[in-house]
Write a structure and sequence with these properties.
The chain is of the alpha+beta class. About 20% of the residues lie in helices and about 15% in strands. The protein has one domain (about 5-100): Glutaredoxin. The protein is built from two helices and four strands. It has a four-stranded mixed sheet with strand order 2-1-3-4, covered by helices on one side. Strand 3 and strand 4 (about 75) form a beta hairpin. It binds FE2/S2 (inorganic) cluster.
Length: about 110
């Protein structure tokens, strides 16, 4: 039996302001993680869906970055206001939010839709 049906990792990595790579912390990573956790709890999904803070996911240029397993769906440019759509569409209905999926060829090539 699987521990969780879905596991979401939200990058909260923080870099110094002068670092050219930027970081997801500055793009709202912590607020996004908090919103996922809050809504998952409110919706009674805590036993099947887990949202976890992550360090750098090596998708910095697309941040704020989020990846959902087991589908291996990578989302980029995620904002707090996108969390509800990801929960309702992807996590509940198994319909990934295409408009937020990273389109770079190194991402989502192994996605299980
Ligand atoms: S800092 Fe978020 S993916 Fe690298």
């Amino acid at each position: 039996m699987k521990r969780f049906e879905k596991h979401i990792f939200i990058c909260e990595n923080k870099r110094p302001p002068d670092n050219p790579k930027g970081c997801c912390f500055d793009k709202g990573g912590s607020a996004i993680r908090e919103e996922f956790k809050k809504r998952i709890a409110e919706l009674g999904l805590k036993s099947t869906i887990r949202a976890s803070s992550s360090g750098c996911l090596d998708a910095c240029e697309f941040g704020a970055s989020v990846v959902v397993y087991p589908e291996q769906i990578w989302y980029g440019g995620v904002k707090v206001e996108d969390v509800e759509e990801i929960i309702q569409s992807h996590l509940i209905k198994n319909e990934p939010v295409k408009r937020l999926m990273i389109t770079h060829p190194n991402f989502n090539k192994d996605a299980k839709l």
